[in-house]
Structures are given as structure tokens and as C-alpha cells.
Fold this sequence. Notes:
By secondary structure, the protein is α+β, with helices and mostly antiparallel strands. 29% of the residues lie in helices and 25% in strands. The chain has three domains: 2-88, 2-Layer Sandwich (Uridine Diphospho-n-acetylenolpyruvylglucosamine Reductase, domain 2), CATH 3.30.43; 91-216, 2-Layer Sandwich (Uridine Diphospho-n-acetylenolpyruvylglucosamine Reductase, domain 3); 220-309, UDP-N-acetylenolpyruvoylglucosamine reductase, C-terminal domain (Uridine Diphospho-n-acetylenolpyruvylglucosamine Reductase, domain 1), CATH 3.90.78.10.
Amino acid sequence: MQHRLAAALRDKMPELRGRMEQDVVLRSITWFRVGGPAEILFHPEDLEDLSYFLQQLPPAIPITVIGLCSNLLVRDGGIPGIVIKLGRGFGEIAVEDGHRIRAGAGVPDTKVARGAADAGIAGLEFLRGIPGGVGGLLRMNGGSYGVETKDILIEVKAINRAGKEVVLSHEDMNFSYRHSGAPDDLIFIEGLFQGKPGDPDVIRTTMKGITEAREDSQPVKSRTGGSTFKNPEGQKAWQLVDAAGCRGLRIGGAQVSEKHCNFLINTGDASAADLEELGETVRSRVRENSGVELEWEIRRIGVPAIELED
């Protein structure tokens, strides 16, 4: 099926410049180091190439968009259809008048923070504490240290399933906690962010403090996917997990971090199923202990391996 689909798409898209691969095992690029294959993984060369691809792609074929794969759990059965990975063709960053930064969806959040610091633009330092890319930042209203994407965003450029460019205002994004209400079928390609005047040395000192705080309190050198659960209103997810006795809890090769128990860790041989089962076990124990229903912050995508066996 995969070989026929890839060949058919290549025949249908003679002007395509991006790289199209089949049966690519995604565990090699996810931060958790788990996950099954992408039926087809497409790396568009640039926006024009992505637009052409979408215009030619049959509408019945599903699309999944990934970025740096930091806050992502790809299930063991892999992802059917097309997986689009935005990379170097979406990696531009530019300083604009009025203390603004424009960044492509493939730019790491930390690079945006450094670019703002170099330009003497304050207000974006919190991005140093987010280990993802701009595309994910926009989709989930990423935040850290009391600041969220909604606090700095001016507008977003996106492309729809028909390959047409769309511009969304701050209001169009309909942000809420760790969530964007923009249509799911839009692919974010660029964000414009507002900062304020600042001293580069002061900004860099703040960023250094954020880096040190993360290293001191989070398992940043482990195979993890960042914060697992959203903080319930007025509460901290890690405190609820700890109170439920889940610190250090293990299932297979998956473990709740001893250092920060809102992080799950692949200790070396975990499957995606181990990690997801551990997360659901934690949710169940927190529910029983405190009555609070934790919501996943990590995005879980793909097909469980057991469904393929059935």
C-alpha cells in the first residue's frame, strides 16, 4: 500500500521539489525515542512547494503535521497517510520594526529567544524554557514561567488543505490554556511576535536564569516529552501526581520522573504503549486520590500497535 501510494503521488506531482520518504520509523526523531513508522514522510522544500503538494494531494488522504517532536508521543503502530515535517524551508527568523520578531514554523523556540535578545527585544525570554518549535508553540499556546504565546502574538500565517495561504489575527487564534482554537486543518507556517525595548545583557541574564532553573528542576537530559499534563486551574499537575504516590512509578521501560513528576521518561526500552499506559495510570490514581481529572498536555498521535494486530 505504501509503495503504491508513494509512487502514485510522485507521478501526480512532477514539479514537487521536497523529499518524500516511505515507511520512516519516527522513533529516531521523537524526543521520547518511541513511535512507529510514517506511511509517507514529506519534507517540503519551502512554502511554494508545500502549497503545490497540498493542491495536488487527494482530499481523502489524511495529513499529520510534526515539528521538532518534543511534546509528542507517536504510537507504536505509526501514522497512516501523510506526515509533513516542516524544516529548513520554514526556518527563517527576522527582526522587524516596532520590536517585533517574525519566525517560521520550523524555528526552535530557543532560537527565537536568542534572536530577540541579540536585537535588544525583551518579553520573549520565556521561549528559552520551551523545548519545541514555533509551529507547536502556536498550535498549543505554549508557555513557561508565567508567560504564554497569546501574550506576545500579533498574527499567524497558515496554509489550508487546499494549499491557500491564510492570515489569522490574535483573535482568530481563540487561545485558551495550552490550546489554540484555530481550525485543525490549518498548517501554521509563520508567527509574528511583539516584544518591547530591552538591554541585551539583561535579557540574556534572564534567559540564563531560565535555563538554569530548567536544568535544576526538570529531567532535561532524559528521553522525555516535556510536561505531560496540563495544570488544572489553581493547581499544579506535579503536586497532584506526587500526592497520588506516582513519583518514580514504572510500567515497562516508562517511568514517572523522580526529579519532576509531571515528566514521563523512557528509561531506555520503553514503547509508546508503556508511556501511554503509565500516563493513564497516573491520571487514574490522581482521580482516585483528589477527584481531579488531569488532561494530557503531550500530543498523542498515530495507531496503537494492538489495532494493527486486530
